[in-house]
Amino acid sequence: EAQVTQNPRYLITVTGKKLTVTCSQNMNHEYMSWYRQDPGLGLRQIYYSMNVEVTDKGDVPEGYKVSRKEKRNFPLILESPSPNQTSLYFCASSSGPYNQPQHFGDGTRLSIL
Amino acid sequence: KQEVTQIPAALSVPEGENLVLNCSFTDSAIYNLQWFRQDPGKGLTSLLLIQSSQREQTSGRLNASLDKSSGRSTLYIAASQPGDSATYLCAVRLRNRKLIWGLGTSLAVNP
Hints:
Chain A is mainly β. Chain A has strands spanning 4-7, 10-13, 19-25, 31-38, 42-51, 54-57, 65-66, 76-78, 87-94, 103-104, 108-112. In chain A, a hairpin with a 2-residue loop joins strand 5 and strand 6 (54-57). In chain B, strands 2, 4, 5, 9, 10 and 11 form a 6-stranded mixed beta sheet that branches. In chain B, strands 1-3-8-7-6 form a 5-stranded antiparallel beta sheet, with no helix packed on it. The termini of chain B are far apart. Chains A and B meet through strand 5 and strand 10 of A and strand 4, strand 5 and strand 9 of B.
């Protein structure tokens, strides 16, 4: 089954404790991205990747890092999480960056205390 | 600055009704427009993608139209079912390839 898998689905942690949210897709997609979704602000792109070893900033990259060492994986790293990073996070992938439908993971709800 | 607005924010209809969800955008110079649905606790599912050169796209009971001159897209759902209950999001891709999201319309279809 074609899917985008995110882990963990839920996480409550404390300020400053480094965390990684993993994202893996099994569709051989080149394009992957991370979004955060907040009430009243909608979805905002954090980072995206056009291919292995090619990443770029989205609209709200501050406080986040990503890497793309393999085509299927695109982890999101919060080196020193802060409460304003409490949000619902989505990973997405597509076969092309602009004209192809994006496939989304089920989301990761992060709470930073 | 491109803005994407979806009105109403919430809608409740009885099962079987045909309904229209609206998406408006301020800049008509778009690349494409997509409609997604979001179910609670789940990610987004792409429903329809309309290129700027197209007027509409259809998939089953769904039909999405695009009128760039008026800055509007509509998502028509025929013979609504309780399983259609979800939040429907509109996203506009600009010519610079940036994607702008609306806040969504929360739809409840009551049996």
